[in-house]
Write a structure and sequence with these properties.
single chain, about 280 residues, alpha/beta, 4-stranded antiparallel sheet, globular
């Protein structure tokens, strides 16, 4: 039986009013299953980060609900919501947000100190060893490379043992070499992470390698959701096919619910075991 830990119900998010309004999310419904790693992919400006922020209690929807284990996040008082974010959710953004006046160790432990929790020194040692940070703990963030700063930001989130990780384009600020290296490390950590993870990315290869579930967004709406392999194999729309990297898109005419004719290919027909794609016309 599926255990839904986080969900959006008819979520909209509008910025501004009147003719100048921007509709970032348009009636989004998603369900995130406990223990699964889900990618949210789409082109720039499609609403990926807006959806992640709404799901993480950072940006209240204009309408609709966000439920964490059945609790309406935005019905909580501000103080309760802030504590929930600190103790049960973990965010990694494009920017590392390390405080330059603190050491790497103090940056990593900052969420625990703010919540007046004692650090688990054994777990801290394990985490920093896995991320290659052990020898860097007494340095300042400005003394670290970009890859090391990203590892420190990830350690800061994981040290609090969140139930849900939320990663917003975490590798975008890194060059291609560091990106592959850090992505591999994150993949290894996620393999041992017992909670749930959400990854926002425009990189379909990254999403395919790291996540078993996928949500495809376009212009603030969900085009496709399902297992990553199923979405890639059957994107169900032209827009989703392009976003997942399909290059062989041909015009066709539906003959019945399971058969299409390829236009310009004489009598060539394709028979589908599943219903024909809805964009076929």
């Amino acid at each position: 039986m599926r255990e839904i830990v986080l969900e959006a119900r008819a979520v909209t998010r509008t910025y501004g009013t009147g003719t100048g309004a921007t509709h970032a999310l348009r009636g989004v419904d998603v369900e995130i299953e406990q223990g699964r790693f889900t990618a949210i992919i789409g082109a720039s400006g499609c609403g990926k980060s807006t959806l992640l922020q709404a799901l993480g209690g950072l940006d209240a929807p204009t309408s609709g609900k966000v439920l964490l284990e059945g609790q309406d996040l935005y019905a909580l008082p501000d103080a309760a919501l802030a504590r929930l974010r600190r103790t049960r959710l973990g965010f990694v953004f494009q920017a590392f947000h390390l405080l330059p006046e603190y050491t790497v160790r103090d940056n990593i432990l900052l969420p625990l100190l703010l919540d007046k929790r004692e650090p688990d020194e054994e777990y801290l040692a394990l985490l920093t060893r896995q991320l290659g940070l052990t020898a860097l703990l007494q340095r300042q963030p400005t003394q670290l490379s970009g890859g090391q700063q990203q590892r420190a930001a990830l350690a800061r989130i994981l040290v609090g043992k969140p139930r849900i990780l939320m990663l917003d384009e975490p590798f975008s600020a890194l060059d291609s070499y560091l990106r592959e290296e850090v992505e591999g490390e994150v993949g290894s950590l996620l393999a041992n992470f017992v909670g749930t993870a959400l990854l926002v990315t425009h990189n379909r290869d990254e999403a395919y390698r790291l996540c078993k579930e996928m949500i495809v967004l376009n212009e603030g709406q969900v085009l496709r959701a399902g297992t990553t392999k199923a979405v890639f194999a059957d994107p169900q729309s032209i827009a989703a096919a392009r976003l997942t990297g399909c290059k062989n898109i041909l015009p066709c005419t539906p003959l019945d619910s399971h058969t299409v004719r390829l236009d310009g290919w004489d009598t060539t027909c394709l028979l589908y075991t599943s219903p024909s794609p809805r964009d076929c016309s």
